Amino acid sequence: MLIPRHIIGPKYGNRVTVKQIARYLTGTGNTSKPRSRLAFAFDIDGVLLRGKNPLPAAKEALSILDGNNKLGLKIPFILLTNGGGVSEEERCRKLSSQLGVQIHPDQFIQAHTVLKSIVHNYRDVPVLVLGGKSDTLRRVAEGYGFQKVYTTLDILAWNPSIWPFHDLTQEEKASVRPTDFSKVQFGAIFVFHDPRNWALDTQIMCDVIQGIIWGSYKTNHTRKHVDLVFCNPDLIWQSDFEAPRMGQGAFRVAFQAVFQSLTGSTYPYIQFGKPTEATYNFAEMMLKHRLQGVSKPLLYMVGDNPESDIAGANAAGWKSILVHTGVYDPHRGPPSHQPTYQAEDVAEAVRLALDQEFC
Ligand code: G3P
Ligand code: MG
């Protein structure tokens, strides 16, 4: 069957066969159930949500991907955020109700999800997990396979004089795991999500790294190196407040400034989250899985933050679309990292990519 030009656009001259379209769309000649070569990774804050509120264009964008497009094609997508703080399952439940579309954990990556790929190095090593509310992230870390997980609230409960400016609330007291930390030698500190108490967490990170907790400080026991891992480098992010807010990256800068003032040097750390290669490799693996192995996949990242979304996608060799509903404000000049395209919002971004790739 030949298809007229105005249906399929200029790319194919006047007439082409369904088989040629199927080959282009799916990388296979199979016309029975065309599958898309195109797939999207969507950032969340500033693209789909502002704070707790879905952005108006979000539902339209997801409905286009759900087959409401001129090719009637279902187009795979994942959500790729530097946010975090709860389990993937819990966040997907919340997102599904906010966006009105079922979001499944195997299409969702948050800042600390990538730690699943390194947990084998720390399975029974005592680790300190920072961020989020009370001990929510202890449970998330144990869900990933970490077996000896402590929080800064556990340490404060063990010795309140370690930070005299915070009294544990009832909720926090209920979350702590009584432990004698003079017997715990930490192997790593993981900053999963934005700490709620920067001062307490900064004090205890400095103490753990310098062996003050463990007592080698006094006795000069050989101090074991403590790995320091941050999961989200964002200095700023877009919430429902009109101006961008400080992110986990700002906490890292603050910690390093204090540590340097105390010790004369900053402390080496490992960074995950967008734009890091580790996180984009993890995302590419998940996208290719959803594309069920079609050849020559067309991967698009749609984001609001040039530093994380666009820089990472460009470095991964994907196409990128920068939207104007979040951190990046086009009135403040060109973006720090050049996207493939720009768009007002996520729905315009999806339509633009479909037009570019299918027309
Ligand atoms: O804390 C989350 C923030 O840093 C950015 O989230 O969804 O824009 O990557 P997102
Ligand atoms: Mg964002």
UniProtKB/TrEMBL annotation:
Q: Which organism is it from?
A: Suillus placidus
InterPro entries, per database record: CDP-alcohol_PTase-I, HAD-like_sf, HAD-SF_hydro_IIA, HAD-SF_hydro_IIA_CECR5, HAD_sf
Which GO cellular component does the record give, naming just one? mitochondrion
Q: What name has this protein been given in UniProt? A: HAD-like domain-containing protein
Q: Which domain of life is it from?
A: Eukaryota
**Single biological process term from Gene Ontology:** glycerophospholipid biosynthetic process
Write down the Gene3D superfamilies for this protein, in alphabetical order. Answer: HAD superfamily/HAD-like
Query: What Pfam family does this protein match (any one)?
Result: Hydrolase_6
